[in-house]
Design goal:
Elements lengths: L1 H19 L2 H4 L3 H17 L5 H20 L11 H13 L1 H4 L7 H36 L5 E6 L2 E7 H25 L2 E2 L15 H8 L3 E2 L3 H4 L4 H27 L7 E2 L18 H24 L14 H23 L2 E2 L1 H7 L7 H12 L3 H17 L9 H7 L10 H5 L1 H7 L8 H17 L1
Parallel strand pairs: 3-4
Antiparallel strand pairs: 1-2, 5-6
């Protein structure tokens, strides 16, 4: 019976270790943990809390641990519980008692918050760089297509003629806002948690401003109590990633539509498309479909952490151990998504003829006729609207696009048009229609080029 109880006790202990431990996923933070510990040890030595000799042993030992991890020699053990204890235990094996002095004046609460904050800040810069590369790619393609006509749509119905460069710049604007969101979050969250200790600070004469400086933070956080359980920075990167992935999903949806036979606007490079397992003629847009699908994954990670945090009392609670895996997953997802979307766009084959032919479907210059009647004939817009509807009906009966109607066909469409000037033909021309939209931010080639110039100047400053 005693033996049976011992077996159960051992089994239960192993189960608890497995349930409680985070080392198998939070080892992702090893570089930030070592960086934070080196900074902490330097501050302790400067403040006379540990000797310079012990600090040097600690720093050299930590650098050895880092080498072991990066060379694959380091042994991760579940009984170490987390990355912090795994590194500290190995450090103590290497340098002896000096390793035990490292944890003076800090808690695992502020240690993990520091590691995680450093990770989020590091990854924020990486994601910004990838967004910049994608934006550059979109702007570069746009600069080659400021005169390429494509149907501008609302409700996925043909609406007005625009140029393809203008369309791509809409996405460049979305990704620019994403870049700025990450930029704003980085500035707001660039504060060091280190030195907050468990929740109330420490009686040791530490210098939190020094550790903040050594770690590249602007300053230390203000409230130790808030700091030990704050995960707003993690929520922000999850939200920023979710928004960026939403924009990735939107352009992916258009790539899927455009590459269909019904549109035929683009073809994806063979590198980023696949064939059917049984239909050899097919070319499937697997990459944009996967990008679209992965958006739901990062949304889930955001909602998961929001749910974890919603009911936590101050200060630290073990619940926050659930903060990291979702962030790691979302970061990895957005990084590869940005890389592969950039590659897809960079190798995209664009069928300008199909785009321009599609502009002859749906009477895209209808608004131009209404605007012309308002400006030239002083007809109220609502009246002009109904006159234009009659012209659309006439064009449909003749199986023509409105832009292809002759002056006589226009005059016969509605009695209000019987004396219309022949110059209206020029107004209904699709290219002229596109170039007529000269308001700031409009689709004319001139205004599109203006956007490109603004983007290029902005890209030079970041």
């Amino acid at each position: 019976m005693a033996q049976k109880n011992q077996i159960l006790k051992n089994t239960n202990a192993e189960l608890l270790d497995k349930f409680n431990a985070s080392v198998m996923f939070d080892k992702e933070l090893y570089a930030q943990d070592i960086k934070g510990s080196i900074a902490h040890s330097k501050m302790l030595a400067l403040q006379g809390i540990i000797t310079i000799e012990d600090q040097e042993k600690i720093e050299n030992g930590l650098l050895q641990v880092k080498d072991e991890i990066e060379s694959g020699k380091f042994q991760w053990k579940i009984e170490d519980e987390d990355v912090h204890m795994a590194i500290e235990n190995r450090l103590t094996q290497i340098i002896g008692d000096a390793g035990g002095r490292l944890h003076t004046a800090r808690s695992r609460n502020d240690q993990v918050a520091t590691d995680f904050a450093l990770y989020v800040q590091d990854k924020t810069l990486v994601i910004q760089d990838k967004l910049k590369t994608l934006i550059k790619t979109l702007v570069n393609i746009a600069s080659k297509h400021t005169t390429t006509l494509i149907p501008g749509m609302t409700h996925l119905q043909h609406a007005q003629p625009i140029n393809f460069g203008f369309h791509l710049l809409a996405y460049a604007n979305m990704f620019k806002r994403d870049f700025e969101r990450f930029e704003s979050s980085y500035a707001r969250n660039n504060k060091s948690p280190l030195g907050s200790a468990a929740l109330a600070g420490t009686p040791h004469n530490i210098d939190r401003f020094k550790t903040a400086e050594l770690l590249g933070f602007d300053e230390p956080t203000l409230s130790a109590l808030d700091t030990s359980s704050n995960r707003d920075f993690a929520l922000e990167i999850l939200f920023n990633i979710s928004t960026a992935m939403m924009h990735i999903s939107r352009i992916s949806e258009e790539l899927i539509l455009w590459s269909s036979y019904e549109f035929g606007f683009v073809k994806m490079s063979d590198e980023y498309a696949t064939t059917s397992s049984i239909m050899p003629q097919k070319k499937n847009p697997d990459v944009p479909e996967l990008l679209r699908g992965k958006t739901g994954r990062v949304y889930g990670n955001l909602i998961s952490l929001l749910t974890v945090m919603k009911g936590l009392p101050l200060a630290y609670n073990k619940d926050t151990q659930e903060d990291k895996e979702g962030v790691f997953d979302s970061v990895a997802t957005v990084e590869i998504s940005l890389d592969i979307l950039t590659a897809v766009m960079d190798t995209l084959i664009i069928n300008t003829d199909a785009m321009q032919n599609a502009c002859k479907i749906g009477h895209l210059s209808a608004t131009d006729l209404a605007d012309y009647l308002v400006q030239k004939a002083n007809i109220p817009f609502r009246t002009a609207y109904y006159i234009t509807k009659d012209v659309v009906k006439t064009a449909d009966k003749l199986n023509k696009d409105m832009s292809e109607l002759t002056i006589d066909e226009l005059r016969d469409a509605n009695e209000n048009l019987k004396d219309i000037d022949e110059e209206i033909i020029e107004y209904l021309n699709l290219r002229n229609s596109m170039n007529a939209r000269t308001s700031f931010g409009g689709t004319s080639t001139q205004r599109t080029q203006e956007q490109i110039d603004i983007f290029q100047k902005w890209l030079e400053t970041i």
